[in-house]
UniProtKB/TrEMBL annotation:
<dbReference type="InterPro" id="IPR006093">
    <property type="entry name" value="Oxy_OxRdtase_FAD_BS"/>
</dbReference>
<keyword id="KW-0560">Oxidoreductase</keyword>
<dbReference type="InterPro" id="IPR016170">
    <property type="entry name" value="Cytok_DH_C_sf"/>
</dbReference>
<dbReference type="Pfam" id="PF01565">
    <property type="entry name" value="FAD_binding_4"/>
</dbReference>
<protein>
    <recommendedName>
        <fullName>cytokinin dehydrogenase</fullName>
        <ecNumber>1.5.99.12</ecNumber>
    </recommendedName>
</protein>
<feature type="signal peptide">
    <location>
        <begin position="1"/>
        <end position="30"/>
    </location>
</feature>
<keyword id="KW-0274">FAD</keyword>
<dbReference type="InterPro" id="IPR036318">
    <property type="entry name" value="FAD-bd_PCMH-like_sf"/>
</dbReference>
<comment type="similarity">
    <text>Belongs to the oxygen-dependent FAD-linked oxidoreductase family.</text>
</comment>
<keyword id="KW-0732">Signal</keyword>
<dbReference type="InterPro" id="IPR016166">
    <property type="entry name" value="FAD-bd_PCMH"/>
</dbReference>
<dbReference type="InterPro" id="IPR006094">
    <property type="entry name" value="Oxid_FAD_bind_N"/>
</dbReference>
<dbReference type="InterPro" id="IPR015345">
    <property type="entry name" value="Cytokinin_DH_FAD/cytokin-bd"/>
</dbReference>
<feature type="domain" description="FAD-binding PCMH-type">
    <location>
        <begin position="77"/>
        <end position="255"/>
    </location>
</feature>
<dbReference type="InterPro" id="IPR016169">
    <property type="entry name" value="FAD-bd_PCMH_sub2"/>
</dbReference>
<dbReference type="InterPro" id="IPR050432">
    <property type="entry name" value="FAD-linked_Oxidoreductases_BP"/>
</dbReference>
<dbReference type="InterPro" id="IPR016167">
    <property type="entry name" value="FAD-bd_PCMH_sub1"/>
</dbReference>
Amino acid sequence: MKSPTQFLFKQKHILLKLLIFILCICSINRSNNCCNQHFATPSSLSLINLSLKQLKLEGYLSFEELNHAAKDFGNRCHFLPLAILYPKSVSDISSTIKHVFEIGTITDLTVAARGHGHSLEGQAQAYQGLVINMESLQEPAMHFKNGELPYVDVSAGELWINVLHESLKLGLAPKSWTDYLHLTVGGTLSNAGISGQAFKHGPQINNVYQLEVVTGKGEVITCSEERNADLFYGVLGGLGQFGIITKARIALETAPKKVKWIRVLYSDFATFSNDQENLISSQGTFDYIEGFVIINSTGLLNNWRSTFNPKDPLLASNFSSEGRVLFCLEVAKYFNPEDTDSTNQHFGLDLLVKQAKFTVDHE
């Protein structure tokens, strides 16, 4: 009879082998995701090339200088496409996808929409396939509607930074952002679009009233919560697998006149996470709350404007970041100049400064 210790050892050994097996399978699958399994013959590629060149487009197809479409932000997968479509209109995308769908019985040609190339794992790449450069689709011009529920109709190939600039001219701004604004509207809506406003307004996909989508059959469909809802919810955050977003109606709000921006550094994770949870769950604190980790960062005191009293250099000199893991809480409060007194009171600053070793703020 085996002892309990021997039995447990055997069980652990079996579990370990099972875990190694699962990891190997996952590794193979991940590897396959970055190594295309479809290899078209030269003759079939020539036929596909010929058929694509016969399409009548307002934009154009390029069969040369394709290397940039085989790279993305993840920099792990490199799939060289057969061609890149530079659409000038939605009909360019629609007719091209319809053509690909119709010849689908004789080829495995795949299609991928590419925004600003910040995808991971080759999401915006298509090996021996067709990449659609969505940044070429920046027309028609943005259309704004003011009123109780303001919004902007914008091409999916437009960059968020441009949406911000045009919105601000009318005293408006999108409710929810991403940290980096040089990304396409369709690109972030195909993922989620998460930033420090998400705790209050939800991610960007929660702030969309309506979409125009080209389906896998080349159909152009308008969808919303009330109309073609399955497609609407499938495309938002769908990683481009349920259709290509070509236009979006984005919810706006009144833009603040000023913003108080504060960063707080912590050396203790529990204190950092507790403060963040308290601020997120409390009413009337900040309009933007986001936390992140800083590893081996140097020169923090030189790069950020410090709220240390200049007359107290001893306190500032006690803070050293070199070689340490620190936790940063970044918060912002929107306000109007006539309410300046409220910017330094009543929204959790005392809690943050009390717990932090170092703070910085910009107005």
